[in-house]
């Protein structure tokens, strides 16, 4: 049965299909848990020496800037050596699946809200302003909430770096907490017939916050990894590298392009699969579809536990 009004469209499947999809979610979670347990243990923790970056006094280390620079350098080196790290190879794809599933679930459940794409929310706002239509609350709040969570995440990461602590695992844990909260609110209060209802807006902002943390952690903790929520950038880079592979004659340039493309395609595939599964599950089991990104968040966090910690050495 399909229920529709001006702002909400929902598909209510028969009970047996709901039960089947709930069983699918449970099995998927079990498979993810078993997969995480089977991953090889990480090697020894790399230690990175502080860099001398004090612009005014060459050779004198600046604790704040050198800590940030050293972890970013180590993260970049770690990702570039992905051939020897299964955890690093899995993370961008898993994070992209999370972003794709959260984005499509938020779009279908919350009146067209883009939880992972601020660009889309800006387009919606501009269209409503230009046409004089009433503006939904969630897209209005999504932009400042996204920016605020980015700032708070950067502050938290800086605090961890100041005490020589790695940032990847804490940020993955924070994202998982937000995804679990997103699931709880959706299941407890959904489906949402009014996307402007307070509880619907709360669910949307939890999704936006989770995606803000994910975007920040890729920039902070996975330097050199492809974007996990911006497919325009990833597809552009992939096609440019594919063109270099096909049409350039310099062996070194071709090798570099092939290496970049090898790191980019899992993110593109992951986002596409996440969108597809999220849409199918949302149309089938409604709010319980939020269990998909939560289960993937468990996978990402478990994978992060297998990645060598990167701590700036004092």
Q: What order do the helices and strands come in, and which of them pair?
A:
Layout: E1 2-4, E2 9-11, H1 15-38, E3 47-48, H2 63-80, H3 86-109, H4 118-131, H5 137-162, H6 168-189, H7 198-221, H8 231-247, H9 251-285, H10 291-305, E4 311-312
Parallel strand pairs: 3-4
Antiparallel strand pairs: 1-2
Helix pairs in contact: 1-10, 3-7, 3-9, 3-10, 4-5, 5-7, 6-7, 6-10, 8-9
Structure characteristics:
314 residues; mainly alpha; Growth Hormone, Chain: A; two-stranded antiparallel sheet; two-stranded parallel ribbon; 3% strand; globular
Task: Write a short abstract of this structure.
The chain is mainly alpha-helical and 314 residues long.
Number of strands: 4
Strand and helix order = EEHEHHHHHHHHHE
- As for the number of domains, it is 1
Distance between the termini: 62 Å
Mean pLDDT: 77
> SS-based structural class?
mainly alpha
Q: Mind summarizing the main beta sheet?
A: 2 strands, antiparallel
Query: If you compute it from the alpha carbons, what radius of gyration comes out, rounded to the nearest whole angstrom?
Result: 21 Å
Using the alpha-carbon principal axes, give the shape.
Answer: globular
Tell me what the CATH architecture is. Up-down Bundle
The CATH topology label is Growth Hormone, Chain: A
Q: Give the C-level CATH assignment.
A: Mainly Alpha
> In what order do the strands lie side by side in the largest sheet?
1-2
Provide the helix percentage. Answer: 55-70%
